[in-house]
Amino acid sequence: MATEIMAAKSAADSEKITINLGFVDLGQIELLVKEGFYSNRTDFIRTAIRNQLERHEHAVRQSAARRSLDLGLRRVTRQDLEGFRERGETLALNVLGLAIIDPDVSVELALDTIASLHVLGSLQASPALKTALRGRIG
């Protein structure tokens, strides 16, 4: 059975995911909700995910550092990219979390300045930018 959950607190800072659970697992979650341990299924699943992430926090941080990942939110503005272009540099964007490329960034500017884009999490950019950068997204 598929259960949909929100990965964070509000639609603005979350990504919807779908998971498949066995009927027994789902029934156990329902029982814990009915017994008042959790307010709903989503609360249970979020808590379980947070507990696992907390349990592996050290490994995540080490891996993120080794891979030179920006943790959390990384916003790329038109001004940022214009600066790269003026200096004749390119940007290797590596994010664990949310990467946002501002809507006023043109496809041309992005292609001139973004050498690579690796996002573990979510990328928010215009459909045109995502299409243009497809070959640089790893």
Q: Can you tag this structure with a few keywords?
A:
two-stranded antiparallel ribbon, disordered N terminus, 2 domains, 138 residues, three-stranded parallel β-sheet, alpha/beta
Structure description:
The protein is α/β, with parallel strands linked by helices. The protein has two domains: 2-55, no CATH class; 67-136, no CATH class. The protein is built from six helices and five strands; from the N terminus they run ββαααβαβαβα. The protein has helices spanning 23-34, 41-55, 57-66, 78-87, 107-113, 127-132, and strands at residues 2-6, 16-20, 70-76, 91-101, 114-124. The strands form two sheets. The protein has a three-stranded parallel beta sheet, covered by helices on one side. The protein has a two-stranded antiparallel sheet with strand order 1-2. Helix 5 links the parallel strand 4 (91-101) and strand 5 (114-124). Helix 4 (78-87) crosses helix 5 (107-113). The longest helix is centred in the middle third of the chain and has 15 residues, at 41-55. The protein is elongated and about 60 Å long. 12% of the residues are buried.
